[in-house]
TrEMBL record:
Gene that this polypeptide is encoded by: gltA
Protein's organism: Pseudomonas peradeniyensis
Catalysed conversion reaction: oxaloacetate + acetyl-CoA + H2O = citrate + CoA + H(+)
Protein name per Swiss-Prot or TrEMBL: Citrate synthase
Gene3D superfamilies in UniProt: 2.20.28.60, Citrate Synthase, domain 1, Cytochrome P450-Terp, domain 2
Keywords associated with the record: Acyltransferase, Transferase, Tricarboxylic acid cycle
BP-aspect Gene Ontology terms: tricarboxylic acid cycle
PANTHER family, A to Z: CITRATE SYNTHASE (PTHR42871)
InterPro entries from the UniProt entry: Citrate_synth-like_lrg_a-sub (IPR016142), Citrate_synth-like_sm_a-sub (IPR016143), Citrate_synthase (IPR002020), Citrate_synthase_AS (IPR019810), Citrate_synthase_bac-typ (IPR024176), Citrate_synthase_sf (IPR036969), Citrate_synthase_typ-I (IPR010953)
UniProt similarity note: Belongs to the citrate synthase family.
Length: 429
């Protein structure tokens, strides 16, 4: 909706009038689409002040520490909902009623297996490959297996692809883990819940099927909910950008996985544990805090800070509670790494450097500790983030394709050479 206008005064040129758009909540947005006619572009590397799209899926108020999916606070979803219900909400806009939920769960379960031939794809990878490297490959490879749902202009195809991705990600994630361990891959079990089935495929073997702890399954489900979506972050924007060219959904999600891998984004959960290992002991914390503050040192305190949250990350609050539940279920007390993490948190929350910059622990700070306690190896942490975020990515992809959109094509401020002529090779210095 545009009722207000902004006026841009450009020296030596006529003023440009720009509409101001108003969302449901959140800051107004200056619509600069008409600016190109004046011969100017905006310059905003890192999207510090640019909305890349319109969306109805997720709202974040970073100053107040609020995260809403389709209007529902993340705390309520974590407490009163489950992951598949949250998936339905993100994909369809409303929470399901009992019948819709049963139907959705059953549809997802119908798609949990992957094509048998996909197994041989794994054999091309080294066993010690990073699981995220394998995930980028195998998820992209799904487009070679499901030709029947690749027409992005067909809403039914988009629907089937969305369900397939949500259903198959746990299977693929567990297959990646089993491959790295040299253990047989486990088929999904549709009598289990989404989280139970994932833990079953991760930790059970054909020769020993152990029951899944309900507390751990609940914790896993919560981790999935807390990572399900986070509006236009780097990986979601990557999925939208890839999708805007008309690429198929499996290729787009593979692009999202690649973007998520970086330590400034989803790779942070793995980086937190690596950092705790590196710090090693409480007595070394001061040294690492000093490194984090030193502008000449690239080291950053992993699991702290966020582009949007300048207050507590609401996901981190729920994650901390879950962390306490899991540690108590597993009887983990006096864990040195956990003590180290808690001490680090305490220092960072009181140190003026972190306080002035509003650098709070983010979702990745606690999720790593929980995942480690559940027995998931560090290298699988970001895979789990990818598994859970797939529904967010695919919801944004679907949203974009459901209304008129343009290929994403940013402009640039060119600072390279002006036109020049090639010097013959023999005359070059
Ligand atoms: N340790 C030390 N200093 C930090 C940290 C940190 N973790 N994060 C930000 N700063 C400083 C930064 O140096 C800058 O200082 P100054 O103003 O003096 O130059 C100031 O705080 C503002 O930071 P920024 O780098 O401009 O903020 P950004 O919005 O560009 O980056 C971030 C956000 C998440 C990439 C960054 O905080 C970071 O690298 N954190 C560590 C990695 C991490 O935990 N990432 C997970 C994010 S949550 C999950 C997800 O979204 O994937």
């Amino acid at each position: 909706m545009a009722d207000k206008k902004a006026q841009l005064i450009i020296e030596g040129a006529a003023p440009v009038e720009l509409p101001i758009l108003t969302g449901t909540v959140g800051p107004d947005v200056i619509d600069v689409r008409g600016l190109g006619a004046s011969g100017h572009f905006t310059f905003d590397p890192g999207f510090m002040a640019t909305a890349s799209c319109e969306s109805k899926i997720t709202y974040i108020d970073g100053d107040k520490g609020i995260l809403l999916h389709r209007g529902y606070p993340i705390e309520q979803l974590a407490e009163q909902s489950d992951y598949l219900e949250t998936c339905y909400l993100l994909l369809n806009g409303e929470l399901p009623n009992a019948e819709q939920k049963a139907q959705f769960v059953s549809t997802v379960k119908n798609h949990t297996m992957v094509h048998e031939q996909l197994k041989s794809f794994f054999n091309g990878f080294r066993r010690d490959a990073h699981p995220m490297a394998v995930m980028c490959g195998v998820v992209g490879a799904l487009s070679a297996f499901y030709h029947d749902s690749l027409d992005i202009n067909n809403p039914q195809h988009r629907e089937i692809s969305a369900v397939r991705l949500v259903a198959k990600m746990p299977t693929l994630a567990a297959m990646v883990y089993k491959y790295s361990m040299g253990q047989p891959m486990m088929y999904p079990r549709n009598d289990l819940s989404y989280a139970e089935n994932f833990l079953h495929m991760m930790f059970n073997t054909p020769c020993e099927i152990k029951p899944i702890s309900p507390v751990l399954a609940k914790a896993m489900d919560r981790i999935f909910i807390l990572h399900a979506d986070h509006e236009q972050n780097a990986s979601t924007s990557t999925v939208r950008l890839a999708g805007s060219s008309g690429a198929n959904p499996f290729a787009c999600i593979a692009a999202g996985i690649a973007a998520l891998w970086g330590p400034a984004h989803g790779g942070a959960n793995e980086a937190v544990l690596t950092m705790l290992d590196e710090i090693g002991d409480v007595s070394n914390i001061d040294k690492f805090i000093a490194k984090a503050k030193d502008k000449n040192d690239p080291f950053k305190l992993m699991g702290f800070g966020h582009r949007v949250y300048k207050n507590r990350d609401p996901r981190a609050t729920v994650m901390k509670q879950t962390c306490d539940e899991v540690l108590s279920e597993l009887g983990i007390k006096n864990d040195p790494q956990l003590e180290l993490a808690m001490r680090l948190e305490e220092i960072a929350l009181t140190d003026p450097y972190f306080v002035e910059r509003s650098l709070y622990p983010n979702v990745d700070f606690y999720s790593g500790i929980i995942l480690k306690a559940i027995g998931i190896p560090t290298s699988m942490f970001t895979v789990i983030f990818a598994l859970a975020r797939t529904v967010g990515w695919i919801s944004h992809w679907k949203e974009m394709l459901s209304s008129p959109y343009k290929i994403g094509r940013p402009r640039q401020l060119y600072t390279g050479y002006e036109q020049r002529d090639i010097v013959d090779l023999k005359d070059r210095k």
